[in-house]
Amino acid sequence: MRSLQGLKVTVWRAYSTAKSAPVIAAKHPFKVQLKSGKLYPWCSCGHSKKQPFCDGSHRKAAPDLAPLRFTLTEDKEAWLCGCKQTKTPPYCDGTHKQSYVQECTQEPNQ
Per the record's keyword annotation, is Magnesium included, yes or no (predicted)? Predict the structure, then answer.
């Protein structure tokens, strides 16, 4: 368990020796309302059609990547990363503003 912005957050993640790199799903973050106690699967591969959350697309498009599953201890409005390049997953850290993200023409393989 880790503390983020004064909230206790529990994160579950399937670790693997990832060979695939995530694709940029969006060049902006997603504003979401999160409920305490609910398990959320944040898409880490960029292929989901239900961004920023996982729809299982990674199983076919990037089988060595898994969603980051997390839950909060209290309700919260948050900005979740859409570019999949954040250093603070699942939260946006502003990386989408970098030129290498904004100039990218890569599209998710869906």
Answer: no
d(CA 38, CA 97) in angstroms, rounded, equals 30
pLDDT of res. 105 = 82
Quick: pLDDT tens for 2-24.
555 566 666 666 555 547 899 99
Listed in sequence order, the residues at least 6 apart from 105 whose beta carbon sits closer than 8 Å to its beta carbon are none
DSSP code, position 22: P
- The reported pTM is 0.80
| Backbone angles phi and psi of 88, in degrees to 5 | -125, 55
Q: Measure the CA–CA gap between 65 and 20, rounded to whole angstroms.
A: 7
- Alpha-carbon span 86 to 93, nearest angstrom: 6
